[in-house]
Target: Trk system potassium uptake protein
Amino acid sequence: MQSQLIIRILGILLMIFSITMVPPLAVAVIYGDGGGGAFFSGFLISLVTGLFLFLPRKKVRGELRTRDGFLVVVLFWAVLSLFGAIPLYLSSIDNFGLADAVFESFSGLTTTGATVIVGLDDLPHSVLFYRQQLQWLGGMGIIVLAVAILPMLGIGGMQLYRAETPGPVKDSKLTPRIAGTAKALWYIYLGLTIACALAYWGAGMSIFDAIGHSFSTVAIGGFSTHDESIGYFNNSQIELICIVFMIISGVNFSLHFAAVRGLSIDPYKRDPEFKVYLGIIGVVALIVTLVLVFQGGLGFSEAALDGLFHTVSIATTTGFATENFSTWPIFVPVLLIFASFIGGCAGSTGGGIKVIRFLLLFKQGAREIKKLIHPNAFFRIRVGETVLSENIIEAVWGFFATYVVLFFIFMLILMADGLDQVTAFSAVAACMNNLGPGLGEVAANYAGISDLSKWVLSIAMLFGRLEIFTLLVLFTPDFWRS
Amino acid sequence: MQSQLIIRILGILLMIFSITMVPPLAVAVIYGDGGGGAFFSGFLISLVTGLFLFLPRKKVRGELRTRDGFLVVVLFWAVLSLFGAIPLYLSSIDNFGLADAVFESFSGLTTTGATVIVGLDDLPHSVLFYRQQLQWLGGMGIIVLAVAILPMLGIGGMQLYRAETPGPVKDSKLTPRIAGTAKALWYIYLGLTIACALAYWGAGMSIFDAIGHSFSTVAIGGFSTHDESIGYFNNSQIELICIVFMIISGVNFSLHFAAVRGLSIDPYKRDPEFKVYLGIIGVVALIVTLVLVFQGGLGFSEAALDGLFHTVSIATTTGFATENFSTWPIFVPVLLIFASFIGGCAGSTGGGIKVIRFLLLFKQGAREIKKLIHPNAFFRIRVGETVLSENIIEAVWGFFATYVVLFFIFMLILMADGLDQVTAFSAVAACMNNLGPGLGEVAANYAGISDLSKWVLSIAMLFGRLEIFTLLVLFTPDFWRS
Ligand SMILES: [K+]
Ligand SMILES: [K+]
Model:
């Protein structure tokens, strides 16, 4: 472990992060909402702590190796989330304790989008902007994590993407590759954000709302500046724009990168995960629409828009809403929450287990059946033109099983803390899948649950966002052995 | 596919099965309960159908191969369950339709123990005896299935047990091995049943109840002759006897076989699955006891007995009850239902995913983490002294994932049919794990759900009992290709 180097990096990250307190500070000044103090304090505390960590190690040099990578990634989200909670804690939000501030900050940076705040519409603009910005920054982190870092660390079968990752060189040194990849992806991310903000603005949002919602849309975040979420605008054009950008943001950013570089849509056409992703959304949206028409009594066009919007929102794990979907025929919300377990594509800002892993599980399940019928034959698994190694397959299985077991452990903890089964189930699903809204007591927000449950769910968000294993390895003695 | 041979076997099975209608017929005569007619009709219909299938194929000879094995196993449970439903359908049970009769029969033969009957205490003795006997017969079938057939078919990693299976020869011919193994195991099963019946009788049950409950105890079935289940007797000695025999029946019968043959308890001591099995029961029982003491307000000794009884009953997937445990602090019933997913040991009459598979998943999960930390090292997985092949590991992963996915599909179907989430969750868990009692609307019995849900749950029981894949292969076109 290169402890000194890692602390140095953490210091730099905190100093950079402190700068992100400046835009909300500016918003506070522009709107004169009186919320500036909290962000100035947050800025100073983060900057000074960063300097404090960095300066004594100014001259430390070295290369991060794979094992250090796990620690840096976990610290990135955990430490920035904790420092990100400071301005929220210092803001004058009603009944806002430490557990609330940390929950909200984790929910922002992990792009989960679950909130403990009631009465968003009455908050200072600076706080609203800050929450949206946390999601956008989290999304930037995730794209680099998902496209550049996880494949290198080999988490849950993501070594599958090693060869395809954009970036200059392929070796075990982490830094140069990540820097190159990150830059390319961030341009795409920024471009999508600007396009999304312009579209929202053109469709009738205020500039403030347009920017804020573009942040949480491309980040698959789901935070809104209104308690009613996208439903506040009551504008089907905005809903359609939202649908389009959620779908785009749930796609592997490597595909966007390849498409932009080659000015061609061939990369999408060739990608098996992309097709399955669209297929799942299509089938689920159709089922939801039919249920809304035949059981919910809605007209077809209203049901189709509502069905498509919420399917895309939940299946990509964004978590926006235009209706209180938890009151729909109970089959629908549960189906949607199941879809959120599948989640977005690998290499996107979406959460969940990821479409590619389900595709691999399905293919491997089919192979197991073939093996039973033809016990002496040998079958390979292909995705597109790639033949999968047994290593990747086992990693995907391991990922899935660990995800499920961890899910049930979290659910039991919440139930032991007094939540009912529906609430516990949906809360853990919504947090581990980085989805956001749940059912039962957490359908509207998470304000009503205990502090313990908030802490547990904050950890669940982190586990989900870091694809379980990045965080889980840190709990093994083997990891800390030199 | 050797269709003629398979139909011939089915004919023989039906003729043998028809004989099992004779004991309840005798019970009807002894108690003069007027229920004899239904069993006489059941006897005749099964016998005649059996003859009708068998006689034209009297001279058909051949050897069953692996692929035929799947079909015979599925037909064994499906067809016998359907014919087993006949006397129940013909009996004078109130409001008992076709779906009810089939559900009850499937529940019996798969040793699930879920019932759609309200008012067991008022039923004719012959019907009560028949239900208990169905479970006992199902248990006989399962032992042979689990110890002799599944390892040979290689279902869900059970090829692990190929070398250990007792029986004369090892080759691909199914019949001679199974016959030898079956005989040895049935002696043990019969011995356990007699011991259990004598113990119950000595502790105060009537002979009728002692025999009936011994049947459903060693079969891990859970049917009772009373609505209050074991709680009816209100006798802690009976509860302790029940605990002991449930634990014994949840152990791999190969171990019992080896122990009896060698007159030694070494086989248990050497078996890793056995230790984990006892460990899980111990830990869960402790947690349940503590919750009952501190949240439920029970005295320690009462809580310990209640906790141990229900932990053993649910974790082994028996499904007996002495209290209405669904009203305990909700954490407890959900924890117990999660434990039923782990279930009994492989090669036992217990249901669920089986302890050995969870042990393998845990070891493989730990290996995945080690691989992340040491990407270039190579790790083997051992169980006891056996090194596992990648084939077995993948089969276990495939089993687990398919189990989970199928679980959620069944749950969605039930919710689409109108069940609430808690009921649907617990009903599918209770049926797929061959457990029996659920929560919510199905805590006491399954009488209140729709016919469609009953049919779906009957199929779920069959999927669970046949370890998913035995049934699933039949749904692939590849299986039917010659
Ligand atoms: K989200
Ligand atoms: K049972």
Observations:
- DSSP finds 20 helices and two strands in chain A.
